[in-house]
Design a protein that fits this description.
This protein is α+β, with helices and mostly antiparallel strands and about 260 residues long. It folds into two domains: about 1-85; about 90-200, OB fold (Dihydrolipoamide Acetyltransferase, E2P). It is about 50% helix and about 20% strand. The chain has helices spanning about 1-10, 15-30, 35-55, 60-85, 170-180, 205-220, 225-235, 245-250, 255-260; strands at about 95-100, 105, 110-120, 125-140, 150-155, 160, 185, 190-195. A hairpin with a 2-residue loop joins strand 3 and strand 4 (about 125-140). The protein is globular. It starts with a helix and ends with a helix.
C-alpha cells in the first residue's frame, strides 16, 4: 500500500512539492519559529541539496528537496505573522487609521470591530503601515451605522491579547493569531471617529455591504428580531444576530446543523 502510494506521488511532482510545503506551514503555525531560525534552516537545506546534486546522491537529494520546501513553508508562515504583528504598536501613543474588514459585532455595551491598520501618525506625518487588531468601542448613536469598509481614526493603547487563564479553556489567543491578530483595545466614544464611509473597493467588502443591505430589507418587512436572525442565518449565512436562546433551542432539537453554526 505504501509503495503504491509512493509511486502515485512520484507521478505528480506538484503533490511532491505541496505536501512538504504544507507541512512546513503547519509546523510554523504550532512552533512559531523566529525568522532567523527559519532562514538558517532554509540555507542549510539548500546547501544539503547542492551537495547531494554534486555528489549524485539520489537518496539524499529527495530528502533535501523535502527539507527545502518544509523550510520555505516555515519562512512563509513566519513572514506572514511578522508582517501582520502590530505588537510594536503596544507602546505607540498617537493616532491610527484603519479599515473595518468584517461586519461589526454589537454587544450590550460595546461593539467589536476587526480593523486592518493602514497608517499611523508620526511627527505630524501619516506613515503607511500594516497589521490587524480588534477594537471594542463603547456603544453610542454612531455604532449602529458602522459597516465593513468604513475607515476610522482612533487613538488606541494596544495591548497583547491574553486568555483568561481558566483551565482547559478555548485558546482564544491562538485562534486570533491564525488570523494574524495579536492586539486589542477598548475605546470610549471620544477616542474614535469615522473619516470615510463606503470607501473600500475590495470585493469582499462590497459583498459584506450587499448582505447587510439585504438584511435591512428583510427587517423592513416587519420581522421580529428572532425571525430576522433565523432567516439571516439560513439564507445569508449571517449568524451574529442569533440569540443564545435560539442557539440552545436548535441544539436541543438536534437541528443546529440547519443553521450551520
Amino acid at each position: 500500500m505504501f509503495f503504491k502510494l509512493n509511486e502515485e506521488i512520484k507521478r505528480y511532482p506538484f503533490i511532491r512539492i505541496t505536501l512538504p510545503l504544507v507541512l512546513g506551514i503547519v509546523i510554523g503555525i504550532y512552533l512559531s519559529p523566529n525568522i532567523l531560525t527559519s532562514v538558517i534552516i532554509t540555507v542549510l537545506s539548500i546547501i544539503l541539496f547542492t551537495i547531494a546534486q554534486i555528489k549524485s546522491l539520489r537518496s539524499i537529494t529527495g530528502i533535501s528537496i523535502n527539507i527545502v520546501f518544509i523550510s520555505l513553508g516555515l519562512i512563509l508562515t513566519t513572514l506572514k505573522s511578522d508582517l501582520n504583528n502590530v505588537s510594536s504598536l503596544n507602546d505607540y501613543d498617537g493616532y491610527i487609521i484603519g479599515e473595518i474588514y468584517e461586519d461589526p459585532k454589537p454587544n450590550e455595551k460595546t461593539t467589536s470591530l476587526k480593523i486592518e491598520i493602514t497608517a499611523l501618525k508620526h511627527d505630524d506625518e501619516w506613515v503607511s503601515t500594516s497589521g490587524k487588531t480588534i477594537l471594542y468601542i463603547e456603544n453610542d448613536e454612531r455604532t449602529d451605522d458602522l459597516q465593513a469598509g468604513d475607515q476610522i481614526i482612533f487613538n488606541p493603547h494596544l495591548s497583547e491579547i491574553e486568555n483568561s487563564g481558566n483551565p482547559e479553556e478555548f485558546d482564544y489567543k491562538k485562534y486570533l493569531s491564525y488570523n494574524m491578530i495579536y492586539n486589542s483595545d477598548f475605546l470610549s466614544s471620544d477616542e474614535w471617529n469615522v473619516i470615510k464611509s463606503d470607501y473600500s473597493s475590495k470585493l469582499n467588502i462590497k459583498l459584506l455591504r450587499f448582505r447587510q443591505n439585504l438584511i435591512s430589507q428583510l427587517k423592513e418587512h416587519c420581522m421580529s428580531n428572532d425571525e430576522l436572525a433565523v432567516v439571516s442565518a439560513l439564507a445569508l449565512g449571517y449568524k451574529d444576530q442569533l440569540s443564545d436562546e435560539i442557539r440552545h433551542a436548535y441544539a436541543s432539537s438536534g437541528a443546529m446543523h440547519i443553521l450551520a453554526v
